[in-house]
Amino acid sequence: MLYLIFSPFAKQFILFNLFRYISFRTGCATLTTLLLAFWLGPKLIRWLKSKQGEGQPIRSDGPETHFSKKGTPTMGGLIILIPFFISTLLWADLTNGYVWIVLGVMLGFGLIGFFDDYLKLTHRNTKGISGRVRLAMQAAIAVLAALGITALSHPQLQGALALPFLKDFLLHLGWGLFSLFAMLVIVGAANAVNLTDGLDGLASVPVILTAICFGIISYLAGNVVFANYLQIHHVVGAGELAVLGGSLVGACLGFLWFNAPPAAVFMGDTGSLALGSALGTIAVIDRHEIVLAIIGGLFVVETLSVMIQVASFKLTGKRVFKMAPLHHHFEKLGWSESTVVIRFWIIAFIFALAGLATLKLR
After folding, report:
1. What is the dihedral of CA 114, 1, 187, 356, to 10 degrees?
2. What is the pLDDT of residues 125-154, one digit of tens each?
3. What b/e sequence results for 202-229 when a residue is b if at least 16 CB atoms lie within 10 Å of its CB, and e otherwise?
4. Are 209 and 182 in contact (CB under 8 A)?
5. With contact defined as beta carbons under 8 Å apart, do 150 and 158 qualify?
6. Number of domain units in the chain
7. Which residue range(s) make up the domain with 288?
8. Is residue 94 one of the residues assigned to a domain?
């Protein structure tokens, strides 16, 4: 909004020229979202406590240390989503179609998560929406987003998959297969972040690191000079997604202030599904879907631990891990919650560095 208001007057007023720079608006979006989260957080937490009573249901088969968290409100993702949407609408170029696609996906997945959290609270169990219904709704939103991304893409990139380490190579899948692939990336990213969000502060920092990385990638892919230098595919308009990446960072930092151990509020599916879907959508737009699996490697490992556990139990009747997702396995081994969280943050940082390194390996 501010970009559209002030950038036309850049020649008359030199200060307004700042609004034409993505880097300036990214920094402003980060700070705006952070301050909004700080201001809104206490008010939302008080409201959630007044409405939820006993707070988020705690798994009866979970680590014993989690029973002390009874009464902590959930749906804290609202502390992320509300500041994010306000800040993005203020600082992003609203004529950019990619911006609206990411906002639409986040809103759709956030509403699914909100309804899921609501059912858990009202039914006083940890199940919420049935898995099939939830996946069907997620898939529908993701396919619509994939079709929108394809329609906005340069003809050379439409329905095409780029592979890391290979310059000037595109695997043309066609609209149908590409939409299916993009749907898997978006839905997979959303649920991977959701599975990781099981300990105080665990998901926030990996999301911050991933958002920083994809903010950088978006800026580079959207700039023809940098894209050519790095020999990555130039995606016209992708640079504006750096503003959204900055806004995600600010929102998660603000939420982490209240979610730091001992958490005053839980993110819930409201936040985790929305955050994961946003990262997946940005990766699809940037044509760095496979790099997302590297940068977000922690999310992949957590998801694989659940898949391995389920497959092993169904096939052999035995469990590979003491409990899945993986962070609960280490809790069962006797690690304190803070030890698991900090060590997983370090692993996420290593994955993020490895993913960024792929930009130069061509």
Report:
1. -130
2. 667 788 899 999 999 999 999 999 999 999
3. bbbbbbbbbbbbbbebbbbbbbeebbee
4. no
5. yes
6. 1
7. 22-53+72-294
8. yes
